[in-house]
Design a protein that fits this description.
2 copies of one chain form a homodimer. Chain A has 314 residues and is mainly alpha-helical. The first copy, chain A, has helices spanning 5-23, 31-41, 48-59, 68-86, 102-106, 108-129, 134-145, 150-159, 165-172, 182-209, 214-240, 259-263, 265-282, 290-303, 305-310; strands spanning 95-96, 99-100. In chain A, 69% of the residues lie in helices and 1% in strands. The first copy, chain A, has a two-stranded antiparallel sheet with strand order 1-2.
Chain lengths: 314, 314
Amino acid sequence: MNSTFPQLLSQWAKEVEAALQHYFKPAAAPPLLYDAMAYSLFAGGKRIRPILAMLGAEICGQPRQNALPAACALECIHVYSLIHDDLPAMDNASLRRGKPANHKVFGEAIGILAGDGLLTYAFELLAEHYPQNCSALVLELAKAAGPEGMVGGQTLDMIAPQKTFLTSAFASLNFQSPPSNPPQQLLERIHRLKTGALLKTSIKLGALVAQAPKEQLDAIEQYGHHLGLAFQIVDDILDTIGANTGKTATDLDNQKLTYPALFGLETSKNLAQQAYQKAIHALEIFPNSPAKNHLENLAKFVVEQYHTKNNPST
Amino acid sequence: MNSTFPQLLSQWAKEVEAALQHYFKPAAAPPLLYDAMAYSLFAGGKRIRPILAMLGAEICGQPRQNALPAACALECIHVYSLIHDDLPAMDNASLRRGKPANHKVFGEAIGILAGDGLLTYAFELLAEHYPQNCSALVLELAKAAGPEGMVGGQTLDMIAPQKTFLTSAFASLNFQSPPSNPPQQLLERIHRLKTGALLKTSIKLGALVAQAPKEQLDAIEQYGHHLGLAFQIVDDILDTIGANTGKTATDLDNQKLTYPALFGLETSKNLAQQAYQKAIHALEIFPNSPAKNHLENLAKFVVEQYHTKNNPST
């Protein structure tokens, strides 16, 4: 792997940070609400979704700066989902990225409202900055974030802890009878909706900003799908081996369905590797370019995280 | 008042009901989430916001049916706000429209997610059905519903109960020193943001669907502003005289700032009457039409509710 790639990631994250400072301007919001939204929005993070949007625009031939408002909208959606997921009624997490969770600082009511505010503001950003292709962008983001996407995935995640998934989760999937390999099917559906949908949409928003032709959009969608899968498997692995820092309520504590719990660690690593290969393969239709190279490195970076985190010397 | 107006309202509400059945179709959502969203979306209600959108399109020269998807989006936003407002961390209400509140039936986690899902779906509806003027519609709705609108108003409402508003609320308004008439200023700001913003936007979305010229949009906005104010004052009055049924956690229980608490009942009724007059006045630029007549009757109906509800024989 290109040794400068982590440096590139951190440089792009700084561009995202500056864009958030520039575009996140609900100036007339009550100061307390503004503070609560900003507390979580500017709490750091890898900014993977915004970076995907930027690279998605770039691989389709546009300057990545054109995707910055969409990138900020994606981060608003991602951060709102973290705030709501951490609430006592949901995952009941008291830490996020090593800092007290939003509701621990501002209280549950303001935490709920800060999430609602960020979610709504994301669509304001798209409508304001992309009047020409507003419809395609809003439709893509709303579908990925809404009841058939991320919110749906979080619902399944809440009702499908390992101990009860055979009853409630099957009912929620409307299965007439249990399928042959139900846990894997359910697990993949949860991940696809909860994490995968927004990751896939992140790079797709960049391609939509660039008004990419259908063939490119399809390839981008494939890349995003497999990257999202790899991302989630690796996140499960990191939770399992205890390498995910800054979280208090891990999926293990909450007895959630995870890849290592279902397949064991080694098979999970192989599944992540397969997803990585498919992501790379999807990019083959694009001519060589720095953006293509970056997206290949990004996928590699995602699947190799457990090596790095498991072995602090690397 | 035209004796058939309440019948007209109930006929339009049925049109909204049918439109919701037609347009609210997150078919791939987990059934439990779908049920939770539908439970509140189809729990009745006067459907005032959707009706305003329909009449807004009609007074600007378009068939009101063209505004139905926008009308459904408005109702999704309104219903999401009710679900989140009723949560234990917020108003802690166990009844809504005479039925158990959403979180009482589905639990807090699913209640939060059902609200998130409806909020997101509203933007999907606008993007899908109005590709031509998506940007104007999404921008209008997001601003009215977001941190500078409804979510901001709910924040002020949460942090400004009567007993503490002189401290926390002033701070939240960023006042350097208390203004001359702070409670009225704060009360009006809360209502303008919490209820007024979405009511005003409701009729404005109809006018935007009709691609109305600026002069008409401005008049519609004035009407919506004063109607929203009248609506909120009357709602406060109904809470005070105990005529609001189907609510358990009233604003009085939660010691919230209300018009009657601040001005007394008679002055509040006069303020509602003044707002009504200003709403009617704003419509003067429109030529006579059934839609204009309906909007006048709607404003009259809103301010006369306390007569009706206070005296069951009328």
